[in-house]
Design a protein that fits this description.
It is a single chain. This protein has a single domain, classed as Beta Barrel (Cyclophilin). Helix content is about 25%, strand content about 20%. The protein contains 4 helices and 12 strands, in the order ααββαββββββββαββ. A hairpin with a 2-residue loop joins strand 1 and strand 2. It catalyses: [protein]-peptidylproline (omega=180) = [protein]-peptidylproline (omega=0). One of its GO terms (molecular function) is peptidyl-prolyl cis-trans isomerase activity. It holds the Pfam family Pro_isomerase.
Length: about 270
């Protein structure tokens, strides 16, 4: 017989996955709207009404995703002081690409990454053998400076047993992407069997099958999630210390799912081959 606590956790996990799907639907809607605006702009400019066109472009492209507002009602507020330093000068990249980058990583090589954040350095190892396309994309975006000056926009701390920090969105809203989609990889990795992504897992966020982009999450405590998110690396010991410091500060909404109280900004992301 399923207990109330088990049922509550199951509902929370399902809600987390629905939120990812809603984000993708919102992104599709934004792209469709922009296409219509672009077409309208061409007509308006041809007619000489450039002032109207400028107004049409000032829509809600930067509107924040609010899908995470309604977290589990039993979540306990968790707040703390901001433990992080001031961000380095700079702004996130705005560049996007039409297709996945060409493969440049070797599946037999070893790759490591460092996220130099305002809260400390998060060291990572990347698994190119099991998730070559995902690691290749992460390497490409890092080399393009895509992650530099971006905010880690989401922290989950609620009793649904999902404990992750989500990063990789230049918009800082959960709505950003590099313009292309990645297919899922490594979903049958034994490390994420039984519906648990262990502490230290580095995985891709998505909004459904084969919708990976630039956003990724770092697991700071064992988290119960369906094996639908590509695991492509591990967080090192020093990185885990930084993640736990961020998690200890809590999240802003006090509902277990929202922007972290810690001002987590990736000053620089870099991948190295060994």
């Amino acid at each position: 017989m399923v207990s109330n606590e088990q049922r509550r956790r199951q509902l929370a996990r399902e809600k987390f996955e629905r939120q990812q799907e809603r984000r993708e639907a919102a992104r599709r809607k934004t792209r469709r709207r922009n296409a219509v605006i672009a077409a309208a702009l061409a007509v308006v400019v041809a007619a000489g009404a450039t002032a109207f066109a400028t107004g049409a472009l000032s829509g809600d492209d930067g509107k924040k995703d609010t899908a995470a507002d309604a977290a589990a009602p039993s979540a306990t507020p968790s707040k703390g002081p901001d433990p992080c330093a001031k961000a380095a000068p700079g702004t996130p990249a705005a560049k996007t690409w039409k297709s996945e980058p060409a493969m440049t990583v070797g599946t037999s090589a070893s790759y490591a990454a460092k996220l130099d954040t305002t809260c400390g350095t998060i060291d990572l190892t990347l698994d190119a053998a099991k998730a070559p396309h995902t690691v290749n994309s992460f390497n490409f975006l890092s080399g393009q400076g895509y992650f530099d000056h971006t905010t880690c926009h989401r922290l989950t701390t609620d009793p649904s047993q999902i404990f992750v920090l989500q990063c990789g969105d230049p918009k800082g809203t959960g709505m950003g992407d590099p313009g292309y989609r990645l297919k899922d990889e490594n979903l049958k990795d034994p490390a994420v069997k039984d519906g648990v992504y262990p502490a230290g897992t580095l995985a891709m966020a998505n909004a459904g099958p084969d919708t990976g982009g630039s956003q990724f999450f770092l697991v700071y405590k064992d988290s119960k999630l369906a094996p639908n998110f590509t695991p492509f690396g591990k967080v090192g010991p020093e990185g885990m210390k930084v993640l736990r410091k961020i998690a200890a500060a809590g999240e802003q909404r006090g509902v277990g799912d929202g922007p972290p109280n810690a001002t987590v900004v990736v000053n620089k992301a870099a991948v190295t081959k060994s």
